[in-house]
Amino acid sequence: MPADWSPLWLCLRAAGLSTAISLALGPWLAFALRKPPGGGVADTLLVFGPAVFLLYALRAPAFQWPMAGLVAAAFGVPFVMRSATAAFAALDPVVENAARSLGASEWRVFWAVSARLAWRPIARAGALVFAIALTECAAALFRYAR
Amino acid sequence: MTHARLGKKVPPSLSLDVEFQLAPGVTALYGPRESGRTLILDLLAGFAQPDSGRILVDDALLFDAAARVNVPARLRCCGYVFQRDALFPHLTLRQNLAFAAHGWPRLEGRRRVAEAIERFELPEAAGDYPREAGPDFRLRCAAARAVIAEPKLLLIDECGIGEPLLAEIRDACPAPILLVTRDLDLCCSSAAQLLVLDAGRILQRGAPLAVLDQPDSIEVARLLGIPNLFEGSIAALDPGRNTSRLKFEHFALTAPYIAGHFRGDRVWVAIAAESLVVHPGEDQAIANGVAAPLVRAVEKSRGVRLEFDYGITAEISRQEFARQKDNKSWQVEFPPAALRVL
């Protein structure tokens, strides 16, 4: 019997989508919410994320990779947020203030300064989100396997 | 007009309450650590919010506690040269300058960056990242970056800036400059106004030389590093001869007449170490001289510091010290004109 690779492509697509959403939203949310009580938001979402995924895996009538990707992002976004919050907290605030004193908007401070300086921990979190989403999707596929 | 009235309590002990006006040119903010110097700059720049007060920069209202106006830092047009290195570490010095020139059209921005590199002598380091450039280049780049955006108020924290660089900044930036420093020589050479700050209060303000010449209070004299401060009482007052006689614990001095005081009043007297004149003790008694044993002589960059008993400190040139170093005993002359009654 020839090997059927389609489940792997499905999982890769879903994991890629969730990683993309997590990396697009996570750092910016972490930057915008880093002042208290924003830090608690990531932790709360982190608790609910896997539960949402489990609920989807158990309740959805059929496996659709975009939906699986979105649901995995519910876990991925707060995961990246948490890493990014720690990375931004480790940055010297003087450097960001220097950018503000030069007339930079918060978006520019984030994009041109903070994200550039804190990209390593954010990328690490993104890689981890990809790996976790891949395994979760694989696990969810068992439910629909014949 | 640039004017600020700032009130802020910072636990546990600092209570800032200052009001000052800044004219174009350099105003020096002189004070010890923890006196609120950097806090004043942060409040002006918008990185911290005052509890009360008002900030007006170039006639634009930036903060008013009563009217609940608080313009964000990015719209305040306040250049800031930080105490610590605040260059963007992931950008070269040229890119750091280009970041500041972002608001200008592209060609104009490039022209300004090139001009700043030229003016602040950065050509050989322009392509280096801050970690590769020397501290002098980094400081000059930070100054150039603050100036390039044409700030309406330039704030310079204590960052080891020297007189030539400050002169360069002053030429490039017509706005008022508020400089935090502990360097009195820099204040005298570059600043038009000196604000003496202690524990969140401005104790004295005025032209640097005038403040140094006549401190208002014993606290200011101490902050300015005047070593000879003596507390005594007025033994005699003679308005006719324009003299007064002051009695201290170990000696007595003649000083100019002190208006507004009575005999027996306690006063503090200050005299700069350089104003004292030392003589060999074997010479005949000198008018307004005090015979005091020498405790130790300390070599300084500009001369020799002689520390006598009774808390008297004099500074003399090396040549003068070489001439007198074998003295068996010493007399210290207090020129009456140099005595300052606080």
Secondary-structure-derived class of chain B:
alpha+beta
Largest sheet of chain B: 6 strands, mixed
Count of individual helical segments of chain A: 6
- Quote the average pLDDT of chain A: 83
The helix content of chain A, as a percent range, equals: over 70%
Write down the overall geometry of chain B. elongated
Helix content of chain B: 10-25%
Distance between the termini of chain B: 33 Å
General description of the model:
The complex is a heterodimer of chains A (146) and B (342). Chain A is mainly α. Chain A has six helices and no strands. Chain A is elongated and about 65 Å long. Chain B has 342 residues and is an alpha+beta fold. Chain B is built from nine helices and 22 strands. Chain B has helices at 37-45, 93-100, 106-119, 135-148, 163-172, 184-190, 208-213, 218-223, 318-324, and strands at residues 2-10, 14-22, 25-30, 52-57, 60-64, 69-70, 78-81, 153-156, 176-181, 193-198, 201-206, 228-238, 243-247, 252-256, 266-271, 277-280, 289-291, 294-299, 304-308, 313-316, 330-333, 340-341. In chain B, helix 3 (106-119) crosses helix 4 (135-148). The longest helix of chain B has 14 residues, at 106-119. The chains are: A mainly alpha (146), B alpha+beta (342). Chain A binds chain B through residues 92, 94-95, 97-106, 108, 112-113, 116-117, and chain B through 45-47, 72-80, 82, 84, 86-90, 99-100, 102-103, 145-146, 149.
List the defining traits of the structure above.
heterodimer, A: 146 residues, mainly alpha, elongated, B: 342 residues, alpha+beta, six-stranded mixed beta sheet, five-stranded antiparallel beta sheet, 9 helices
Strand-helix topology:
The complex is a heterodimer of chains A (146) and B (342).
Chain A lengths: L5 H27 L5 H22 L5 H25 L3 H9 L4 H12 L1 H26 L2
Chain B lengths: L1 E9 L3 E9 L2 E6 L6 H9 L6 E6 L2 E5 L4 E2 L7 E4 L11 H8 L5 H14 L15 H14 L4 E4 L6 H10 L3 E6 L2 H7 L2 E6 L2 E6 L1 H6 L4 H6 L4 E11 L4 E5 L4 E5 L9 E6 L5 E4 L8 E3 L2 E6 L4 E5 L4 E4 L1 H7 L5 E4 L6 E2 L1
Parallel strand pairs in B: 3-9, 3-10, 7-8, 8-9
Antiparallel strand pairs in B: 1-2, 1-4, 4-5, 5-6, 10-11, 12-13, 12-15, 13-14, 15-22, 16-21, 17-21, 18-19, 19-20
